[in-house]
Specification:
By secondary structure, the chain is α/β, with parallel strands linked by helices. It has 15 helices and 7 strands. It has 3 domains: 122 residues, Rossmann fold; 60 residues, Orthogonal Bundle (Helicase, Ruva Protein, domain 3), CATH 1.10.8; 122 residues, Zinc Finger, Delta Prime, domain 3.
């Protein structure tokens, strides 16, 4: 059988590929699965491989990655080669084509051939408004009930990451047959961005104790902690500094939001926070973060202890 797997969610493509190989081959290994990267392989090598019947196995699979010829305006020569491969394919050989893009050219003869006699899987990037519908359908298909508030919370926490959703949803399905918002909060960590936002807001208000408490909670959850927290917090401080600069130039909130490519509410929160600290103090905080990052990476200080000191002493 022939397959086409396409989309921008490559982790999901890999997961589906593994499932196909296991279903078709039983025990996939280096002898019954041959993988090619079309960016680095002469297509004639793939043609030659397709003529070789599996040795010692009932069937084999040929996996071809980076099949850009499947898209609009793709390479005509490659299209002709793979059209012949699909038309002349044997029952003992599965040809699996992978295209890392959101679209394929549906009018191609080879696409029509696969659509009629094989299978095509599309791993799309869902829009924000599509997530609630997708989540409801997923759990319905698993015969699991999920309340509306839980749907919203789950969508918020996966933040558009389909691969993460699949992992977390599978855990929830195994956990209960009726999912509440409390279940989602119990089983899933919040996006790290939310914690960074809360830490920076607490620091700007002078509430160092709350910032420290949030950080210690992250440690208990086995968070990536300072590896990602320091640069993300630095980004948040730089954003507040940019907002303050544009505000001082006389720009309105809407103009600032448009120029920085963010929502107006985020600009409003940044301006509210900026009342507690000057741009000079924010600049000093950024310098301290950079120095802390260097000290951690050079082994001069423990990352957790160092970050706690930063939170306790903010602003210096």
């Amino acid at each position: 059988m022939n397959y086409i797997l396409y989309g921008e969610q490559f982790p999901m493509i890999k997961k589906r590929l593994s499932k196909i190989l296991k279903e078709r081959l039983g025990q996939p290994d280096n002898f019954n699965v041959v993988k090619f990267d079309l960016d680095e392989t002469d297509p004639h090598e793939i043609e030659a491989e397709a003529e070789l019947l599996p040795l010692g196995y009932e069937r084999k699979a040929i996996v071809v990655d980076h099949c850009t010829f499947l898209g609009n305006g793709g390479n005509k020569e490659l299209r002709e080669i793979f059209t012949k491969l699909i038309q002349n394919s044997s029952d003992e050989i599965d040809l699996i084509l992978i295209h890392r893009s959101s679209t394929i050219d549906d009018k191609l003869p080879l696409v029509q051939e696969v659509k009629e006699k094989g299978q095509i899987f599309n791993f799309v990037n869902l829009k924000k408004e599509d997530w609630p519908v997708y989540i409801k359908k997923y759990f319905k298909d698993q015969n699991v009930e999920i309340e509306p508030a839980a749907v919203s919370e789950l969508a918020s926490r996966v933040d558009g990451d389909l691969y993460r959703f699949m992992n977390e949803a599978q855990k929830l399905v195994l956990y209960k047959d009726k999912i509440t918002v409390a279940d989602v909060c119990l089983m899933m960590n919040k996006p790290l961005e939310d914690d960074v936002f809360q830490i920076s807001n607490a620091l700007m208000r002078g509430d160092n104790a709350t910032a420290l408490s949030i950080f210690r909670d992250l440690q208990k959850l086995g968070s990536r902690a300072t590896d990602t927290l320091i640069p993300m917090l630095g980004t948040q401080f730089r954003f507040i500094s940019e907002v303050c600069f544009l505000d001082e130039k006389g720009l309105e909130k809407g103009q600032i939001a448009k120029q920085l490519g963010v929502s107006e509410i985020r600009v409003k929160i940044a301006l509210n926070n900026s009342r507690y600290l000057s741009r000079t103090m924010i600049a000093h905080a950024l310098d301290d973060l950079y120095q802390l990052d260097y000290n951690i990476k050079s082994g001069q200080i423990d990352r957790f202890y160092g970050f706690e000191l930063f939170l306790i002493n903010f602003p210096n």
